Amino acid sequence: MYLIFLFLYIGNDSTFMSYLKMAAIKFGPQLKELRILLCQTSKSSQGVRDFIEQQYVPLKRNNPNFPVLIRECSDTEPVLYARYELGVERRISLQNLKSEEILQRVQELAASKPK
């Protein structure tokens, strides 16, 4: 009975649910690196800062040997780069996105194949 109550209580917490979603992401062999660029102070990078604070640890816990590079620079547009096999890169703007939306973009990149 306590377990059901705990699940219902935690199940309504969006942070916990996004943690479970992130924990489910496992990068395949085609994806070689994620690189996140952001500004330390700009409003357009707030969602990226939240994403790093909330999602970086579960992401690395599930993919301990996978390189996730975080680059901070003043007045930089927040961007996510995914590098695949043979040096193919995809670039996604993260400007004004929320942490959950960034998580969705990471999931899409992890599931996609390079073109």
UniProtKB/TrEMBL annotation:
Organism of origin: Tetragonisca angustula
Name of the protein described by the UniProt record: NADH dehydrogenase [ubiquinone] 1 alpha subcomplex subunit 2
Lineage: Eukaryota, Metazoa, Ecdysozoa, Arthropoda, Hexapoda
Family: Belongs to the complex I NDUFA2 subunit family.
Database matches in Pfam families: L51_S25_CI-B8
Cross-referenced SMART domains: L51_S25_CI-B8
Stretch forming the signal peptide: none
Superkingdom classification of source: Eukaryota
Annotated keywords: Electron transport, Membrane, Mitochondrion, Mitochondrion inner membrane, Respiratory chain, Transport
Compartment(s): Mitochondrion inner membrane
Chief location bin: mitochondrion
